[in-house]
Amino acid sequence: MQLDFSGKVALVTGAASGIGEAVARQLAASGAQVVVADLDRGAAEQVASGIGAQARARQLDVSDADAVRQLVEATVAEYGGLHLAVNNAGIGGASLATADYPLEEWHRVLGVNLHGVFHSMKYEIAAMLAGGGGAIVNMASILGSNGWAGSTAYVAAKHALVGMTKTAALEYSARGLRINAVGPGFIDTPLLAGMERAAYDGLVALHPAGRLGTAEEVAALTCFLLSDQASFITGSYHLVDGGFSAR
Ligand SMILES: NC(=O)c1ccc[n+]([C@@H]2O[C@H](COP(=O)([O-])OP(=O)(O)OC[C@H]3O[C@@H](n4cnc5c(N)ncnc54)[C@H](O)[C@@H]3O)[C@@H](O)[C@H]2O)c1
């Protein structure tokens, strides 16, 4: 399916690596102007220069609400509007049981994975409404609907993100804004780097497809949801998980 994002301006957070990078590349390949926003300025610049004239790198910490506001305002000032957003920046956090989970780590993970998405939606929605509408995808996870021992903060953030997505869709879908969440299974990206072989194989075994997913497979669903082909899809949570959740 050929998607056409010509004339659209897109903001992708966490776009310097993995899923966000694949989304930024696919959006640009379909005609969008893309803001490649990431905490890692150098990596964002590399991704943007690999894409070419349709991408610009911007340094952003999504846990900083004011920084998100400034980036959204600067994007609108520079390009004349904001039409598409993928709130994808996320971290894994420590792997510890709930009673052992350090308070500071809880706040760090929630700060990026939940507050970061709230900050992003808050300012993106205002900008999109001013331009007559748009589409947002929030990057959840299969852990937006399943538990995972050792990841209480991550699981809490991803569940909350699904609820926040549904709520925002109820609020804005009649005003030309579609808001959805995507729930990837385990995807082979740098987020999983450093994992031992046995642990990796254990994750593979949880996916009936017999492998982990690729960033490009998640990007394909994300870009479809952003496109006009998905014009009646809003307020929902879409899995791309190789059958993980069918068990
Ligand atoms: N890889 C997986 O198995 C998997 C599965 C389900 C969901 N996800 C979700 O997909 C998203 C992307 O994950 P990925 O696997 O591509 O990870 P990744 O580590 O490859 O990329 C994440 C990017 O986010 C950036 N980032 C981190 N903190 C940030 C902050 N505070 N502000 C801005 N940018 C920040 C990082 O610099 C990095 O470039 C995350 O939300 C993750 O939870 C990943």
Description of the molecule:
Strands 3-2-1-4-5-6-7 form a seven-stranded parallel β-sheet, sandwiched between helices. Strand 1, helix 1 and strand 2 form a beta-alpha-beta unit. The protein starts with 8 loop residues before the first strand and ends in a 7-residue tail after the last strand. The mean pLDDT is 97. It has helices at residues 18-29, 41-51, 65-79, 103-113, 115-130, 152-172, 197-205, 215-226; strands at residues 9-13, 33-38, 55-59, 84-87, 134-139, 177-184, 237-240. Helices cover 43% and strands 15% of the residues. Helix 1 crosses helix 8. With 247 residues, it is α/β, with parallel strands linked by helices. It binds nicotinamide-adenine-dinucleotide.
In brief, what are we looking at here?
The chain is of the alpha/beta class and 247 residues long. It has helices at 18-29, 41-51, 65-79, 103-113, 115-130, 152-172, 197-205, 215-226, and strands at 9-13, 33-38, 55-59, 84-87, 134-139, 177-184, 237-240. Residues 13-14, 16-20, 38-40, 43, 60-63, 88-91, 112, 116, 139, 141, 184, 186-187, 189-192 line the site of nicotinamide-adenine-dinucleotide (NAD).
Mean pLDDT: 97
**Mind describing the biggest β-sheet?**
7 strands, parallel
Bound molecules: nicotinamide-adenine-dinucleotide
Number of strands: 7
Straight-line distance between termini: 29 Å
Give the overall form: globular
Residue stretches low in confidence (pLDDT < 50, at least 5 long) are none
What is the percentage of strand-forming residues?
A: 15-25%
Please trace the helix and strand order, writing H or E for each element. EHEHEHEHHEHEHHE
Helix content: 40-55%
